[in-house]
Design brief:
The structure is a homodimer. By secondary structure, the first copy, chain A, is of the alpha/beta class. Chain A has 13 helices and 12 strands.
């Protein structure tokens, strides 16, 4: 799957991923009203609204981008109906040949991690048959448990030809409370990064490992160090746009081959119509605003990469 | 909710929680066959099987125990139907007045943690109405993101009168890879424990905080240290039984008041009928075997507490 992701990045010339993290207040009124008219102001109504909202954005952007990253929490908040909208979104994106990164940040002890891995990336055995529960292409994983929490995910990826992005340095303001603490003179995130590179070394695609890392755009200097520490690791970079990251900050997340990183923007793309910059599109044309925001993001990052 | 948990522990005289972590191969054949006859060998069939299995165990043990801890991964592996069985299990346990600890180990950056918190512990606003997606009483949380990943959970708990157990030292063999690394001369898990105690200090029930901690039974010496470091923190202790922990190892997780900890057993209870010790019950009477295993576990822990 890492080979497919890279092929799609090359084809679109866009090392970016659109974060499908729909808050209900991002969803334009006309979509909400239609969904609530059909299902009422219920979990089902909210789930229908975010699904229709997603569909519009995917239709408007799928030819420009290699991948999407639905954040499962935004669906899980609406219970079972929300998770059904998550699954629908995955299936729809895959039908458009987009690579789907499930931002699930799961992680647990061995057999429990195996259950998550099977449910999201592999197939679960039921009697004589096997079924894929969610079937994302990649999943994000929390490393706090160490190797035996991560290994079951890797095993499933190997068999199902899927991939991972493991949290190394997260984009939020307080990420340093634990991640930056020094251990034998080096911050925890470097130790985690080194482990990720080690796990990934035995699990290579053509040029990069299918065991990737998450490093926040909001910490470009750390990204620079981690890029060198994990040369064969693909880095998923959240925190662009709304969280403060800019193209110029991101060049060091990429290798000299122009690859090695994929930058996520969520709110900045999917709620673009709410920004003054894209307000002319109007709420009705929210998806066109998202398309324009994708084009601008690609130009920002490509420009920064070309002028380095 | 921490007050209710303590009240129920006192009433049952059983500081234990039954981990409802059903693997399909734990489910007796007669239950599997009935479920597959109705729904086929499908995700729906598997979900029905684990739900019926759970119901039998809850019916057989609910008068003996204060709480249950369903592990969401075991349901999530069966996709949407599995998560529906998770929700059904929560609702059923609550109807039996059991405290439900959702073992979800979620954690993310601010707004995303807020979505998880709302979905699992609080209510999500949809237009003029609000709905609870899953509605567990407690949830487990991963601390890797630091304060702003945890705070949204605490905020929701405060409003909804719910509680948390935050991972400090996990029970798995490789938990030490990161958690035991020394920072300024003290292991990471102590720093996390200190943060948990700090977060909890402002969020107290009558005697204990509703911000609790997870510390594995498999590391009793560390439990002893953490018990003193977090005197007002309730500790959820996984790893008893199948993972190797015994009653005698656990006394130091408790305070002098006999409270402060709740010990989880999953496989050791729910798959008791598969152990030689309980084999006489037979597969048909799996739930009676679970009841006996609960009684034995309570006796083991109470005995250890009394003789300390």
């Amino acid at each position: 799957m890492i080979n497919k992701l890279i092929k799609k990045i090359r084809k679109t010339n866009a090392p970016i991923v659109v974060g499908l993290d729909p808050m209900l207040n991002y969803v334009p009124k006309h979509i909400q009203e239609k969904a609530f008219a059909e299902y009422g102001e219920t979990l089902e109504g909210a789930a229908e609204a975010i699904w229709q909202f997603n569909k519009g954005i995917v239709d408007a952007t799928c030819d420009l981008i290699p991948a999407v990253k639905p954040q499962i929490a935004m669906y899980e908040q609406f219970g079972i109906p929300g998770l059904s909208a998550y699954k629908k979104t995955i299936d729809y994106c895959k039908s458009k040949d987009l690579v789907v990164i499930g931002d699930i940040k799961r992680g647990d002890i061995g057999s429990t991690s195996a259950a998550y891995a099977v449910g999201h990336l592999g197939k679960v055995q039921i009697g004589s048959k096997s079924f894929a529960g969610f079937d994302e292409d990649f999943a994000t994983v929390n490393p706090y448990f160490g190797t035996d929490g991560v290994k079951p995910f890797i095993d499933v990826c190997k068999e199902a030809k899927k991939g991972l992005f493991i949290l190394v340095k997260t984009s939020n303001p307080s990420s340093g409370e634990f991640q930056d603490r020094l251990i034998d003179g080096r911050p925890l995130y470097e130790w985690v990064g080194e482990m990720v590179a080690g796990w990934g070394g035995d699990h290579m695609g053509d040029d990069y490992s299918y065991v990737g890392a998450v490093v926040g755009a909001t910490y470009p200097e750390m990204g620079k160090v981690l890029r060198k520490l994990m040369p064969k690791t693909f880095i998923l970079v959240p925190g662009y746009g709304a969280q403060g990251g800019r193209g110029a900050d991101l060049v060091h997340f990429f290798n000299e081959d122009g690859l090695g990183a994929i930058v996520n923007s969520s709110r900045g793309i999917i709620a673009a119509y709410k920004q003054e910059k894209y307000a002319a599109f109007g709420e009705e044309n929210y998806a066109d605003a998202s398309r324009k925001a994708v084009e601008d993001m690609v130009a920002d990052i490509s420009g920064a990469l070309e002028s380095r």
